[in-house]
Amino acid sequence: MKIAIDARELRGKPTGVGRYLSELLAAWKAMPAASAHEIILLMPKSHHAGTAWEQLTLPGLVRRSGADVLFAPAYTGPLRAPVPMVVAIHDVSFAAHPEWFSWREGRRRRVLTRWSARRAARVLTISEFSKREIVRRLGVDASKVAVTYPGVTAMAEAPAARTEPMVLYVGSIFSRRHVPELIEGFTQLARRLPETRLEIVGDNRTTPRINLDAIVRASGVADRIQIRSYVSDEELRGLYRSARAFAFLSDYEGFGLTPVEALSAGMPVVVLDTPIAREIYGPAAIYVQRPDPGLVETALERAVTDTAERARLVDAAAGVLARYSWEECARRTLQILLACAR
């Protein structure tokens, strides 16, 4: 069987969907059941190709490849795909909260994702919460949507001493993730605990754009806050090994992978109290009722200084992490692709 994959997200510096696809490919490479099938990665020559390439060029590439099925891992796929298509929709924030997107980008995402879901033979998603949202907001029949929890990449090979009181955030920076409130809450904590530091790693994709550098400069503790849009995998692993706590104050996610990576590295996580957070992190998180800087400060202090609470959270993480396996995600995804192939 030939499986064609829209592999655009593997270009450049993969994040999010690119990491998801990379992990699936690595798991398939080690899986005997996948070795009997040919995986065909299709991507444009230009780094700037987008919807036009997807809708006009990709169908021809699929046809010429002789593929039996197409996997579109990034929300949308060609509406005139020449073979059955499986599309992965990780969340529908653009439909649930259109105010988080520019008018043009939000409309493009809503229209193409809705039609891709209807055109697809099956829809994959990464949580029960996202499945309910896809059914509700895109009008897709529940029987068509399959949940395949992603796995977790171990970010620390061995437990670290974590002597430095560092708070870490990793992930693309959207308005819904309340990074300004994180900075303000951390600032209040840093005035009382002068050794603490905040490391933020993620590309600023806020709409309207938030000037995070200006917020840091005005904080009074700018020397203890660092923002970087991207770091190497080696540097990222080093941050996961050395951070004392992880913060991810998101209103809306399909899964929220980086806090689970933090759990795998043996550190407590601080998250907003949302249905998806309760589903994914269970008892292994400190929950903040709303993105209020005072509440964030209190939660960060617990995560950094409360020895008993830290031990409880680390113990609870083992049961949570047992639910997530890239091997199982890849096995289930392959099974669905083969079932949909002509």
Shape: globular
Overall SS class: alpha/beta
The percentage of residues in β strands lies in 5-15%
Number of strands: 12
What multimeric state do the chains show?
single chain
Q: Profile the largest sheet.
A: 6 strands, parallel
Low-confidence sequence ranges: none
In spatial order, strands of the major sheet run 2-1-3-4-5-6
In words, what does this structure look like?
The chain is built from 14 helices and twelve strands. It has 342 residues and is α/β, with parallel strands linked by helices. The strands form two sheets. The protein has a six-stranded parallel β-sheet, sandwiched between helices. Strands 9-8-7-10-11-12 form a six-stranded parallel β-sheet, sandwiched between helices. Helix 6 links the parallel strand 5 and strand 6 (145-147). The protein starts with a strand and ends with a helix. The mean pLDDT is 94.
